[in-house]
Specification:
Helix content is 34%, strand content 8%. By secondary structure, it is mostly helical. A two-stranded antiparallel sheet has the order 1-2.
């Protein structure tokens, strides 16, 4: 019986918080809120679709993690 052993390393990414507020994103990254809002306007920072005009802006950390992972030569598989 042949075994199928892969020599490719396996990396598991865990996104503990798929969405965080814009204020929390700025606190963690050191970006100024005005710069983060500019990034949103330029579609460089993914956010959760807002439901109402006054709803919180939430940054999509899952999308940012996927974007970072795609920057290296890795194969992405969903479970």
């Amino acid at each position: 019986m042949k075994s199928h052993f892969s020599m490719r390393p396996s990396i598991n990414l865990v996104v503990s918080e798929p969405f965080i507020t814009l204020d929390e994103f700025c606190r963690r990254t050191g970006y100024k809120p005005s710069y983060a809002r500019q990034m949103i306007r330029e579609n460089r920072l993914p956010i959760r679709k807002k439901i109402g005009v006054n709803s919180l802006v939430e940054v999509n950390m899952f999308a940012l993690t996927l974007e970072a992972a795609q920057g290296c030569e890795a194969t992405l598989q969903g479970q």
